[in-house]
Sequence to fold (429 residues):
Amino acid sequence: MDHIFRQRRISVPKRTSELVALVAVSCTLFLFLHTRDLSTKLQRMQRLNDDVTAFNHLTDRIQTDRAEHAYASAQEYKEALEAIRRNTGAERSRPQRTLESEITRSEEVDQELHEEVLPDPWELNNTARADVELLFFNRVPKVGSQTFMELLRRLSIRNQFGFHRDAVQRVETIRLAPADQQVLAGLVSAHTPPASYIKHVCYTNFTRYGYPSPIYVNVVRDPVERVISWYYYVRAPWYYVERKRAFPDLPLPDPAWLKKDFETCVLSGDRECRYLEGETHEGIGDHRRQTLFFCGHDPQCTPFNSLEALQRAKRVVEQQYAVVGVLEDMNSTLIALERYIPRFFTGALRMYWEELNKFNRINRNAFKPPVSEAVKQIVRANFTREIEFYEFCKQRLHMQLKALKDSLITLPESPVTTNRRIETNYNSL
Fold:
C-alpha cells in the first residue's frame, strides 16, 4: 500500500520553490521599507503640527499681550518661524547665521534696551495745561517752604505779579471738607492774574468746583529728615513765643514733653515716634505724611504709609503739578522752576545764590540736635512708601531737566548736595 501512495506523490520542480521563496522575501522587504517611510513621514508631520500649535499660541499672545511682552514675543515668534522652516525644508535656502553676526545683533539689542528715551519738555510741562496765570503753592511743612515763600515774594516785585498768602491760624487745618475746598478755590481764583497764593493745605482740585485750574507747585524733602525737623520745630522756644503773641490764651505744653529728645522718643517706643503703617492719628499737626499734600482731602489719603495714598499722590504729581522741587537739590529745583514756569520764576536761581545768607537765616532752628544714623534707619523702616514717593518726585525733577537737553545743566551725581555749607543749613531747618 505504501508503494502505491509513493507512486501517486506529485513532484514539484526545484526552481518553482525557489521562486516562491524569492517572492516572499521581496514582499517582506517591500513592506519593511514602506513601513519605515510611513513612520518617518508621520514623525515629521507630528513635529510640524507641534510647531504650528506653538506658533498659533504665540500669535494669540502677541495680540493679547503685545504691550507687556513685545520683545519676548518677537523673539519667540522668530524661533517658532525658524522651527517651521526647518521642518518644511525652507531653512536650506537661507544663509546660515554666524557667531559674529549673532554677537553684533546682541550688542545692537543691548544698546537699544539701555538707551534712555527722553520725552519732549512739553510732555512734562503741566504749566501749559493750566487755565489761568495763577500759581498755587500748597506748601508742605518743613521742606524749606518759608525760604521758597520769601523767594517768591521778592520775585513778585521783580516779575510783576501778585503775592498772596494764607493768614496765620490758631489751628492749621490741611484737610478740608468739600464745602471748605470750594471756598478755598473761590478765594484763590478771586485774585487778579498773574498772581500767586500760598497755603499749608492738601492738593485741591479747583475744576471740581467750577473754577479754572491754577499752576500747581510744591517742594518735598527726605521724609525722615523732615519728620525730625518737625519734631524739634514744634518744641522750639521761639515757636511758642510767636504762637503766644498771636494767640495769648493759647496754653503752654508740658515741660517734660518739650524736653523729650527724638532718639529717646524712638528707642523707648513712645507713641509719638512709632510711625505705624495705616495710622490716621493727627497728633499735633502730625505732618509725617508728605504724600497727603499731593493725594488730596479724601479719607483714603489719611492712613500713614499706605499704598493707595502713594499711588494717588504719584498720579496727581504727574497730571497736575508743573514742578515739584526737592529741598536737597536746590539748583535743579530752581532751574526747573525758571524753565518750566518762567512767568513767575525768571531770575530765581541768581536771586537765591546772590542773597544766600539772607535765605539761610529763615526759620533756622538752633535747638535741633543731631540724630544718629542708627535711629534714622529705625525710622526709615516704617517710611517705605513715603521714601518711594520722595524718590519718585526727585526722578521726575531730574527727568524734566534732562528733557531740556541743555548741556549747561548739570545734574547731581548723588542725592546729597556737594555744597557742605548748604547741607548743614538744610539740616538745621
